[in-house]
């Protein structure tokens, strides 16, 4: 009889480099939060297949048809943006957001100082930083202004941003992944997932922010995603250009761009190159 052992730890804690070297004795797996597909499976008992990015972009009609046969995706997608990413939404909304805040506090107050060498005296400033980002994202980065606002040196702010990304609290986007250097400032900053937005923001969350945060989160799981700058919101795998918006989003910004698509909220079926944004929630 064989024995299988499963253990977990924070994303900041590199178990495989610990004193007891386990790198040759176990298979590491990075656990992402629930995708929209997994949310439908675990919370709504709707079992739908995983799709590749190419299937999502080139054959979205087939995916949407299967989903629309078993549910109305739009109200469920709205629920997912607010409560569906973490696997502990079993009680009520208040408890869910309280649990998220407790996790964030533990990361910032305990793990960052212990595992990343962050000055304990700056913990409150890091929380202030998260509050600013939660209320402002998608945050077009002005590192110097951000550093002045929270009272931390510019280079230190970049170090903290990188640590917060490792902790899965932020996602940093760069316009060119090939030229990214260790101390280069990101071009855009997102919270890691839309549930964090609703838990941490001090003002009502703008739906446009939640949409973009969702797209970055789901696409980055197994694909390279870059900030699109002048052409679209994002570029994926160096090939596909994606623009995120509402039901009325036009093709103007990406009209002459090859392999370009609109991820639109508020629709249940695709039209030409305009796809329901929730279909990217079926990538894992």
Describe the structure.
This protein has 284 residues and is an alpha/beta fold. It has 2 domains: 36-86 and 207-282, no CATH class; 93-200, Arc Repressor Mutant, subunit A, CATH 1.10.10. Helix content is 41%, strand content 11%. The chain contains 10 helices and 8 strands. It has helices at 36-44, 53-58, 60-70, 73-83, 93-116, 123-136, 143-150, 154-166, 194-200, 207-220; strands at 139-140, 170-173, 188-191, 225-227, 234-236, 240-245, 260-264, 274-276. The strands form 2 sheets. A 5-stranded mixed sheet has the order 4-5-6-7-8, covered by helices on one side. The two termini are 32 Å apart. The mean pLDDT is 89.
Brief synopsis:
The chain has 284 residues and is of the alpha/beta class.
Biggest β-sheet: strands ordered side by side in the sheet: 4-5-6-7-8
Low-confidence stretches: none
For the largest beta-sheet, the strand count, sense and barrel status come to: 5 strands, mixed
Choose one word for the global shape.
globular
| Count of helical stretches | 10
- Total domain modules: 2
Features:
284 residues; alpha/beta; Arc Repressor Mutant, subunit A; 2 domains; three-stranded antiparallel β-sheet; 10 helices; 11% strand
């Amino acid at each position: 009889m064989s024995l299988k052992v499963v253990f977990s730890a924070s994303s900041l804690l590199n178990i495989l480099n610990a004193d007891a070297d386990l790198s040759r004795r176990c298979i590491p797996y990075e656990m992402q939060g629930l995708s929209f597909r997994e949310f439908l499976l675990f919370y709504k008992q709707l079992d739908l297949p995983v799709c590749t990015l190419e299937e999502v972009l080139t054959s979205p009609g087939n995916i949407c048809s299967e989903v629309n046969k078993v549910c109305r995706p739009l109200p469920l997608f709205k629920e997912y943006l607010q409560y569906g990413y973490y696997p502990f939404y079993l009680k009520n909304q208040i408890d869910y957001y309280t649990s998220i805040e407790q996790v964030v506090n533990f990361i910032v107050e305990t793990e960052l100082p212990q595992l990343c060498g962050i000055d304990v005296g700056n913990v409150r400033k890091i929380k202030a930083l998260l509050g600013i980002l939660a209320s402002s994202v998608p945050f077009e980065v002005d590192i110097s202004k951000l550093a002045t606002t929270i009272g931390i040196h510019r280079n230190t702010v970049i170090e903290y941003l990188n640590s917060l990304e490792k902790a899965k609290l932020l996602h940093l986007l760069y316009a060119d992944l090939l030229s990214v250097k260790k101390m280069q400032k990101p071009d855009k900053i997102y919270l890691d997932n839309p549930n964090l937005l609703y838990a941490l923001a001090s003002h009502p969350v703008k739906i446009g922010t939640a949409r973009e945060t969702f797209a970055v989160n789901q696409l980055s799981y197994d694909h390279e995603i870059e900030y699109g700058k002048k052409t679209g919101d994002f570029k994926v795998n160096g090939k596909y250009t994606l623009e995120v918006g509402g039901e009325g989003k036009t093709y103007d910004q990406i009209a002459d761009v090859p392999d370009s698509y609109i991820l639109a909220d508020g629709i249940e079926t695709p039209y030409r190159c305009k796809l329901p944004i929730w279909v990217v929630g079926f990538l894992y």
